[in-house]
Automatic annotation (TrEMBL):
Domain Peptidase S54 GlpG peptidase N-terminal residues, every copy: 1-74
Gene3D superfamilies found in the cross-reference section: 3.30.70.2350, Rhomboid-like
Name of the gene: glpG
Record's bilayer topology term: Multi-pass membrane protein
Family, as annotated: Belongs to the peptidase S54 family.
Species of origin: Rheinheimera muenzenbergensis
UniProt lineage: Bacteria, Pseudomonadati, Pseudomonadota, Gammaproteobacteria, Chromatiales
PANTHER family, per database record: PRESENILIN-ASSOCIATED RHOMBOID-LIKE PROTEIN, MITOCHONDRIAL, RHOMBOID PROTEASE
Keywords on record: Cell inner membrane, Cell membrane, Hydrolase, Membrane, Protease, Transmembrane, Transmembrane helix
Protein name, UniProt field: Rhomboid family intramembrane serine protease GlpG
Gene Ontology MF: a single term: peptidase activity
Gene Ontology BP terms: proteolysis
Length: 271
């Protein structure tokens, strides 16, 4: 898909894209800001889409656009049982790796509450010759706040990434980011660390750069969220927070994710 227009209203761009989809045209709206959005379509349908865009710009308030957007938002009639809006089956079909890692972190956190010593002894990076330890610290979380913060970000970023680029790409990117972020923290500080935040920062870095290099991947993070994550990273290095943070894991993960976004800048989304 390629960019064919820019609009100074994100709402208008999304409305037009919804109308085009209802008409059988492949159009995506990529929102950069509330006052700026880009429209992407296929070369084969460019002439049809341009004609529709001309009509839309002449009468953006015409009822047909609102009607098409409403119809598109309604569930269709399908054979078989209808899944509820929030369905683990549906989530598993769309983002199995995201859901699996989230569940694994929850199980490990429960294990930590029951037997702190054995869980830490098995999963921390205390023996570099045991290769799994370069990855398993991402499963450890040392407080409920730590767990919820990381899993919320993993869920937000991971499922989007998996839906757009596939389970194999998410697995490759996440494992390599885990390795790099854990290695950075281990060599620069030591083995007493854990958490999924290195991977989270890696996905954040990927979204941040990919949204600028290849918007057709559909992965984008707002400037407000980007500012929050960078501020949190800086505050960790200045040691002014009430928690101990694996700062080098965060930075290593961030740089690894940015590197992956550059390497995969030409990759197209699955849908």
């Amino acid at each position: 898909m390629h960019k064919f227009a820019e609009l100074n209203s994100a709402a208008a761009a999304q409305l037009f894209a919804a109308y085009c989809v209802a008409q059988g045209l492949e159009v995506n709206a990529v929102v950069q800001r509330a006052d700026f959005a880009e429209l992407y379509g296929t070369a084969e349908q460019q002439q049809q889409v341009q004609q529709q865009l001309t009509l839309f710009l002449q009468q953006p308030d015409h009822p047909r656009y609102q009607s098409a957007a409403w119809d598109l938002s309604q569930p269709g009639t399908v054979a078989g049982p209808v899944l509820p809006a929030f369905s683990l089956v549906k989530i598993w079909q769309q983002a199995p790796l995201t859901l699996l890692l989230l569940a694994l972190c929850l199980l490990v956190y429960g294990w930590q509450q029951l037997d702190w010593r054995s869980s830490s002894a098995l999963l921390q990076l205390t023996d570099p010759t045991q290769l799994w330890r370069w990855f398993t610290p991402v499963l450890l979380h040392f407080s409920l706040t730590h767990l919820v913060f990381n899993l919320a970000w993993w869920w937000y970023l991971g499922q989007q990434f998996e839906r757009q680029l596939g389970i194999a790409t998410l697995a490759s990117v996440s494992l390599s980011i885990a390795l790099i972020s854990n290695a950075a923290q281990y060599f620069l500080v030591g083995a007493n660390f854990g958490g999924l935040s290195g991977v989270v920062y890696g996905l954040f870095g990927y979204f941040w750069l990919a949204g600028r290099l290849n918007a057709t991947q559909g992965l984008y993070i707002s400037n407000g969220l980007a500012a929050f994550m960078l501020l949190w990273l800086l505050l960790g290095f200045f040691d002014v927070l009430w928690v101990n943070m694996a700062n080098w894991a965060h930075l290593g993960g961030l740089l690894a994710g940015i590197g992956w976004a550059w390497l995969l800048r030409g990759k197209q989304a699955r849908h």
